[in-house]
Amino acid sequence: MIGVCLPLVTRSIPALSPERSLFVIVKAFAAGIILATGFMHVLPDSFDMLSSSCLKENPWHKFPFTGFVAMLSAIFTLAIDSIATSLYSKKNKAGVIPESQAQGQGGDQEMGAVNAGNHVHSHHHHGSFSTKDGVDGTKLLRYRVIAMVLELGIIVHSIVIGISLGASNNTCTIKGLVAALCFHQMFEGMGLGGCILQAEYKFLKKAIMAFFFAVTTPFGIALGIALSSTYEENSPRALITVGLLNASSAGLLIYMSLVDLLAADFMGDKLQGSIKLQIKSYMAVLLGAGGMSLMAKWA
Question: What pTM did the predictor assign?
């Protein structure tokens, strides 16, 4: 909860507002964490499970299901990313009203056309516009799609972690795992919180998204404890189910971190206009990815 809420309160801190360079660096750090989560935590777990000696030789040892499912997951995420952005854009051809403004212009309406007579500062060149806070409408749509898709991937991943932890009977392993997972989930939450902040949702939706992120791992742990009498982590059914879920989560997290978080920022105007900021951001990515990779030793 601390991790996902921390970026949401930074708007009251001028140095950490989304327009400042420090926010870009922190976001790069969080993206590195999410990237390492996919490559160093989730993907190796899937490889181990789907290549386990407990599974039949045919087909599980004759085909690389982990890589195949991760690839399909990345392609499917791209399709959702592209189609959702296209649908939102067509639905709101004239633009997007940030939810902070929508309260005064239509209650619960999240997105709507910007009418010629309202007071949102529009710029009518090339069909684009800027919101009152200076955020381009097209970018705002992208931020919202990114926040929703990233939350979905992290939720699936967190539930799987929780079930595995709750069903485990090894108390020595659990103690170290819980401590490592606290840091793991906090840093993942920071990345998600930054995306939610840029999406400019209303307070209620921010709270709901933060709540769902915060409760998914405890929910998974409770579910794992409830199933501990019947759940066998080395049974073929459990290995296949969790292994495939991990592979799909890995594909989603890797795609989101590389394409929607890192590539989008590093190829954007702000970073392209400053080599110094690029270097700082690369260092932040390496620091985040390195720290999360080191944590793979325990979690």
Answer: 0.78
